[in-house]
Write a structure and sequence with these properties.
By secondary structure, this protein is α/β, with parallel strands linked by helices. It has a single domain, classed as Dinitrogenase iron-molybdenum cofactor biosynthesis domain (Nucleotidyltransferase, domain 5). Helices cover 19% and strands 28% of the residues. The protein has three helices and eight strands; from the N terminus they run ββββαβαβαββ. Strands 1, 2, 3, 4, 5 and 6 form a six-stranded mixed beta sheet that branches. A hairpin with a 2-residue loop joins strand 7 and strand 8. The protein is globular and about 30 Å long. The N and C termini lie far apart (32 Å).
Length: 134
């Protein structure tokens, strides 16, 4: 099995559409056997689900994401685990141990831009983290 995590500075990136790289984990017999960080170069906001499909990802762990991304990921047959915060490595270990805290209803809607920062209409993703600057 292959798990992808939206990745930024060792943490779960809090906005799927803004992630510039993913950390990919190869899982065998319930254990991490390999891991690599891959840039999502050439994949725009609307095509990141294609990046996951091309890399044979079966599970995506992420922070917030919008409805379009949620639909694209689901249609690609990828299991979605949204609303995750903290270190990417810990998130995968917790997922494998079936102890990962996540919010299946997290949403990233009503985006606006103010002074080159990116936040959703709630000011954060409901988990204490705002989107990264861009």
């Amino acid at each position: 099995m292959k798990i992808a995590v939206t990745y930024e500075n060792e943490l779960v990136c809090q906005h799927f559409g803004q992630t510039k790289e993913f950390k990919l984990y190869t899982i065998e017999n319930g254990e991490i056997k390999a891991q690599e960080v891959k840039p999502a170069t050439g994949f725009a906001h609307g095509t990141l689900a294609n990046f996951l499909t091309l890399n044979n990802v079966e599970v995506l762990i992420c922070g917030g994401l919008g409805g379009g991304a949620r639909t694209a990921i689901t249609q690609a047959g990828i299991k979605l685990i949204p609303g995750v915060t903290g270190y990417a490595d810990n998130a995968v270990k917790d997922y494998l141990a079936n102890t990962l805290n996540f919010n299946p209803d997290i949403s990233c809607a009503g985006h606006h831009h103010d002074n080159n920062t990116h936040e959703d209409s709630y000011g954060s993703h409901g988990n204490g983290h705002t989107c990264s600057s861009h």
